[in-house]
Amino acid sequence: MNQINNNVRLNYNLQFFAESPTGEKTEKPTPRKREKSREEGQAVKSMEVNTAFLLIALFATIYFVAPIWTQSFIDLFNDTYRMFDISGNDLSVNFVSEFMKDIMWIMLGILTPVLIVVVIVGLLVNYLQVGFRITPKALKPKFNKISPIQGFKRIFSLKSIFELVKSILKISIILTIVYVTLSGREKALLSLYDMNLNQIILWIGTLAIEIGLKVGGFFIFIALADYIYQKLKHEKDLKMTKQEVKDEHKMTEGNPEIKSKIRQKMKEVSMKRMMQDLPKADVIITNPTHFAVAIQYEQNSLKAPFVIAKGTDFMAKKIREKAKENDIEMVENKPLARTLYYTVEIGDEIPEELYQAVAEILAFVYTLKQSRN
């Protein structure tokens, strides 16, 4: 017989059989996790989407109100120019103050349509992205945000570097759009000196609107890419470890042991109530030993007979004992007892297809009681 060498040892790395101590987030977020995230103000939102639609809304509105603006700005310029050419009237503090108030009201009237459109578009875009929900938790101050150490980490984090590169890229593309748009218009720029004020405002306004709409169109592509990125990042951040899913399930569904005890307690209460109602029964239909179903029929009501108690084996025995104590008739009918037990719940009426069988038994019981009396 070969002798086993006890000195031989096999080394196993048991870490391969254990979960990662940090808990890898591999599970999809539960509805409760998503709801909690919403309560904390976390949602899929891209600021690039806001920027894109606000730019397009702004310059599209300017395009439509430009004819009105042109005349308004010319009138404002003429009024301002006349102020410096007032004969016989010095520029007192009160005069200049009143004049500046008038200019402010005129400018407010000119810019109001644009401001209204921008506010409406901004609110609508935010609503379409995250919906409407008041999140008090998101308004609470977070002291880690004012921590110098945390702030330093955020400045030099990978996310900050990514945002910096993205901003540089956006500025570079915007400058390229402006350069391409202005290319070939050098002569028009030099000829502005020979144009009247109306023509200058119209030319510059048209050029600004063109550049604005092109930049807005460019931001649409950025917004689409950024929104997809934010959505993927949000889903990744919401992922949970297997242990988190188990813990949440325990919190929402309850501990299995506690739930089992609650069900047992409810069953005991139900059985106790059932036994208290048993003396009201008119007849007990038995199997005769495995099943027992108590039937009650209120003759003065229009209701069909209904089950007030039922049980098998030990509970069936208890029902029969209770029936003997209260002089309730017991009728043996194996098929009917089994059918009633499996198809009719306590408190429910007898189904129509069983009316005839139950009615015959009740008639027999009533006849038996009358003969005894």
TrEMBL record:
Pfam families: Bac_export_2
Bias-annotated ranges (Basic and acidic residues): 22-42
Parts of the chain that traverse the membrane: 52-74, 103-128, 161-180, 200-229
Cellular location(s): Cell membrane
Keywords: Bacterial flagellum biogenesis, Bacterial flagellum protein export, Cell membrane, Cell projection, Cilium, Flagellum, Membrane, Protein transport, Transmembrane, Transmembrane helix, Transport
The keyword Cytoplasm is annotated on this UniProt entry: no
Topology within the bilayer: Multi-pass membrane protein
A single GO cellular-component term on record: plasma membrane
Tagged with keyword Protein biosynthesis: no
Region (Disordered): 21-42
GO biological process: bacterial-type flagellum assembly; protein secretion
SUPFAM superfamilies in UniProt: EscU C-terminal domain-like
Function: Required for formation of the rod structure in the basal body of the flagellar apparatus. Together with FliI and FliH, may constitute the export apparatus of flagellin.
Similarity comment text for this entry: Belongs to the type III secretion exporter family.
Protein name: Flagellar biosynthetic protein FlhB
Encoding gene (name): flhB
